[in-house]
Amino acid sequence: MSRIEQTFARCRQSGRKALITFITAGDPEPGVTVPLLHALVANGADILELGVPFSDPMAEGPVIQAACERALAHNVSLNRVLDMVREFRQTDSRTPIVLMGYLNPIEVMGYRRFAQAAAEAGADGVITVDLPPEEGEELNAALIEHGLDPILLLAPTSSPARIRQICDAARGFVYYVSLKGVTGAASLDIANVAERVAAIRAVSKLPIGVGFGISSPEAAARVAEVADAVVVGSALVRLVAQHQNDSMKIREAAGAFIASLRQAMDQSQAAKA
Amino acid sequence: MSNSTDAHSETIDFSRYPDDRGHFGPYGGRFVAETLMAPLEELKAAYERYRNDPEFLAELEYDFQHYVGRPSPLYYAERLTKHLGGAKIYLKREDLNHTGAHKINNAIGQALLAKRMGKKRVIAETGAGQHGVATATVAARFGMECVVYMGAEDVQRQSPNVFRMKLLGAEVVPVHSGTRTLKDALNEAMRDWVTNVDNTFYIIGTVAGPHPYPMMVRDFQSVIGRETKRQFLAAEGRLPDALVACVGGGSNAMGLFYPFLQDKSVALYGVEAGGLGVASGQHAARFAGGRPGVLHGNRTYLLEDDDGQILGTHSISAGLDYPGVGPEHAWLHDIKRVNYENITDDEAMEGFETLTRLEGIIPALESSHAIAYAMKLAPRMRKDQTMVVNLSGRGDKDINTVARLKGISL
C-alpha cells in the first residue's frame, strides 16, 4: 500500500478526515520549507502538498503567484524542491508528499527522469495543474511505473464523461476544485460541493479531496462533512507572506492555523458520530 | 535564397492541421487546468458550428468590407525596390485597416462568435496594445463590456494605445506580476476567464493558446493571404517567389502564409525579434534561442532557463516581446516549410526609417522587422523575382519610442 493509501486508511479507521496543506517550496526562502513541513505535520496535517515554483502559474491567484515569485527570487528549481523532499524524509517516513506544479519544469527534466528522481527523493504523488488526462498519458504512465500517484483535478465544469475519464487516470485521490476561478478566491457553496462530490463518488472509489476557497476552521469543518480530505492552500500561504521575515513566526502562525482547522474538522466528525 | 521546402513537407496536406485535439505534429494541444476544459470544448463546438456557416461568413465578410475597410491594398513599393536593386517588393497594407493593424480581422471574427454564444463580456490580453485596441473597438461596436489586461511595463511604453482603449470604453488592467509584459497579461486574462466563464468570451489575439485558438485565429487572419494571392495574381499573373512577415505570437504571418502553404514555389520567411542580438540573451528569437516546452495552453518553442522557468524577453517592439510562438509556426519550422530569421532592434529601426523616407509609410516597429529582413533578402534575389512583405501595422503608436531612442522629446 502506498503512503497515500495508508494515510486515507488510517483516517477512515480513526473516523477523521484528512487535512491536506499546501505551501510553495522555497517561500519565502529555501531554509524555511522543511522545518515548516514538519510543523504542519505536528499540528495535524495528514498529507503535504508542496508547490513547485513556476514563473507563469496560470491557475493561481495573487497569493500563490507572489509565493512563486519569492521562491524564484532564490532560484528554487525542481531539483531543489526534490532535495527538500529528501531532507524531510530523513525524519518523517510516514507523511505523504504530493508535488504540485506546472508541466514545463517537468518537460525540461524529462518525464522518466523526473519520475525516477521524485520517487527516489521520497515524493508520493504529483499534481500537474496544466496537464489534462488527454495530454497526460505519457507522464502519468511514467509516474505510475515509479510508484508515484498522478493526482488529477476535477472542476465544477467537468462533465460526467470527463469525471469518469479523470478518475480512471488518477491514483491516490482526486482533487475537486470547488469553485470556478483561481486559487485563493473567496466564496464556497457547500451544498453545491456536496452535490458534486456525490456525483464523483458515483463513478469512483478514490478518496476525494476538496480545495479552493477554504480559509477558515468553519469552512474546513463543513467540507470535511462531505469530502474525504480538505485542502487548504492560499490561506496558509498568506500567513507565510505575513511573517516572511521571521521563520519562527511563520511556523507558529501556520501551526496554530492548521491546529485550528484540525480541531474544527475533528469536532464536526465527532459530533456526526 | 534558400530552398524552403524539403521532401517531407511536399506530401503534407496543410488543410488537415491541426488534428481534432489541436495538434500540429508534436505542437499545440490543450494544456490548461481542468476548469477551462469545458469552456474550451464549448468554444470549439461553437466555432465548428459557425466556421462554415454561410450566414456567419456573410456577416464577417460584410464587416471586413464595410467596417475594417477590406480588401487592404497590395502596394508595389517601387522606390524601395529600386533602392535595394533586387526582387520586386510588394507590401500587403494591413496598416490601412481600421484601428491600424491586422489585429482587427481576428477581433471581429471572435466578437461575432461571442455574440452568437450569448457572451456579453469580452476580455483580451495585449502587448503593443494593437489587439487591445481592436478588441475594445469591436466591443464598443457590439455593445459588449470589455476588459483588457496589459503588462505594467507595456502600459508605460504604449500609452497612446492605453488611452485609445479607455476612450473606447474598455477597462485597462495593468498587470504587475512576473515580467510585467505580454506573457503576464495572458496569464491574468486566463485567470479572469476561469473565474467568469459563464458570461465571458476570451478573445486571444494571436495564433497561440489552447486549442481551438491557434486554428481559429489563423482562420480569421487567413483573409490576408487569400486577398494577397488574388491581388498578386491580378498584378503579376503568377505567384510571388517569397513572403515575409514578422512573428511575435505569429498571427499576421500565419494569416499571410496559410493560403500559400501548399504552393511549394513560394518561399516563406518568418522574422523574429533579435533584440540586442541572439548572443546577448536579450531577444525574443524563440527558434534561434529556444526549445520546445509548454506554456499558455500549448506546446511550442519557448525561451526558458535550464529549470524550465520562462525567461523575460527583449525587443524594441512590444508586439514581438513574447517568449512563446504559435504552435503551427513551431511545426512549420521543424518541417522546414517556413524559414525563421531574426532581426535586431537596430536593423528594425533602419527598416522603419527606410520605409518611412522612401515610401511615405510609417510602419509599426513589429512590421519594421519584416521590412528589415526584406532589405536583406531582396538584394540576394533576381530582379525578375518578387516578394510580398506583410505590413502588419502602422507606426503611429511607436512614435514616442522612436523619439526616445533618438533622444528627442516630443
Q: Which chains have the largest interface?
A: A-B, 47 and 36 residues
What oligomeric assembly is this protein in? heterodimer
Would you count the extended β strands of chain B for me?
A: 14
Strand order of the largest sheet of chain B: 3-4-14-9-10-13
By secondary-structure content and strand pairing, the structural class of chain B works out as alpha/beta
Round the mean pLDDT of chain A to the nearest integer and report it. Answer: 95
Cα(first) to Cα(last) distance of chain A is 27 Å
Shape of chain A: globular
- β-strand number of chain A: 9
Q: Major sheet of chain A: size, sense and barrel closure?
A: 9 strands, parallel
H/I helix tally of chain B: 17
Shape of chain B: globular
In spatial order, strands of the major sheet of chain A run: 5-4-3-2-1-9-8-7-6
Description:
The complex is a heterodimer of chains A (273) and B (410). By secondary structure, chain A is of the alpha/beta class. Chain A has helices at 3-13, 30-42, 62-72, 78-89, 103-109, 111-121, 133-145, 160-169, 190-203, 217-226, 234-242, 247-272, and strands at residues 18-24, 47-51, 97-101, 125-128, 149-150, 153-154, 174-177, 208-211, 229-232. Chain B has a six-stranded mixed sheet, with helices on both faces. In chain B, helix 3 packs across helix 5, helix 4 (78-84) crosses helix 15 (345-359) and helix 5 (103-116) crosses helix 10 (213-221). Chain B has helices at residues 7-10, 37-50, 54-68, 78-84, 103-116, 130-142, 152-157, 159-167, 182-195, 213-221, 223-236, 251-257, 286-289, 327-334, 345-359, 365-377, 399-405, and strands at 23-24, 27-31, 74-76, 88-93, 121-126, 145-151, 171-175, 200-202, 242-246, 267-275, 291-295, 297-302, 338-344, 386-391. In chain B, helix 6 (130-142) links the parallel strand 5 and strand 6. Chain B is an alpha/beta fold and 410 residues long. The interface between A and B is large, with 47 and 36 residues.
